[in-house]
């Protein structure tokens, strides 16, 4: 082999190594960013998680939360009874953590249409609500950070009547 060939060969090998190294570096730099909203909107990186909230006492009904791979969540359901006199009473629908802190106010986005003491079926897709895709995921919400109180993870769907807690059911993943 002549020296010219060996020289060319080493240049080629060197550039291959450098390219691989550059990829490695840019991948490592990106990694912590992967869970940011801007990233998972472009990439299919969220688990397909489904959770339900079942109301079977004061209020009768069920709401299903289905997260897609982009971190958007379909919220669909129906209440059949217990939302007494919706013409006179104001009902709001809130996703809260286990200490009752508001995580997402669903009232205006659901815009439920009442029927008797319940609602017609409702369905909406929310790009700004996720279940467990990133640190804002409501199923990952933590509460009870005070000493002596056990940390509790997760969220409840809370129905308020005229600003007072009226009924509540956990979002349970299925
Ligand atoms: C509501 O459903 C849960 C789970 O199926 C059950 O444990 C509970 O007893 C039910 N409550 C009423 C009031 O029916
Ligand atoms: C939730 O939204 C409804 C409708 O916009 C509003 O009337 C209500 O006060 C809100 N509740 C909370 C706790 O923010
Ligand atoms: C709504 O609920 C109230 C209280 O349970 C009941 O008196 C009323 O008849 C119900 N209305 C309808 C339309 O079912
Ligand atoms: C992990 C992954 O698929 N990352 C991609 C997310 O989307 C951006 C922009 O489309 C790509 O550059 C990343 O490689």
From TrEMBL:
> Could you name the domain of life of the organism this protein comes from?
Eukaryota
Extent of the signal sequence: 1-22
Query: Which keywords does the record carry?
Result: Signal
What's the protein here called? Transmembrane protein
Provide the species name: Diversispora epigaea
Instruction: Give the organism's phylogenetic lineage.
Output: Eukaryota, Fungi, Fungi incertae sedis, Mucoromycota, Glomeromycotina
């Amino acid at each position: 082999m002549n020296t010219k060939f060996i020289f060319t060969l080493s240049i080629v090998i060197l550039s291959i190594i450098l390219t691989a190294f550059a990829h490695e570096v840019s991948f490592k730099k990106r990694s912590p960013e992967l869970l940011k909203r801007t990233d998972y909107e472009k990439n299919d990186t969220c688990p397909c998680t489904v959770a339900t909230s079942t109301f079977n006492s004061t209020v009768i009904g069920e709401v299903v939360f289905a997260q897609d791979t982009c971190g958007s969540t379909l919220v669909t359901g129906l209440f059949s009874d217990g939302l007494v006199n919706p013409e006179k009473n104001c009902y709001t629908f809130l996703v809260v953590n286990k200490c009752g802190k508001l995580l997402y106010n669903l009232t205006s986005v659901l815009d439920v249409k009442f029927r008797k003491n319940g609602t017609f079926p409702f369905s909406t897709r929310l790009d700004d609500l996720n279940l467990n895709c990133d640190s804002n995921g409501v199923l990952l919400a933590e509460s009870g950070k005070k000493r002596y109180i056990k940390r509790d993870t997760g969220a409840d769907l809370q129905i308020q009547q005229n600003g007072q807690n009226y009924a509540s059911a956990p979002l349970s993943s299925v």
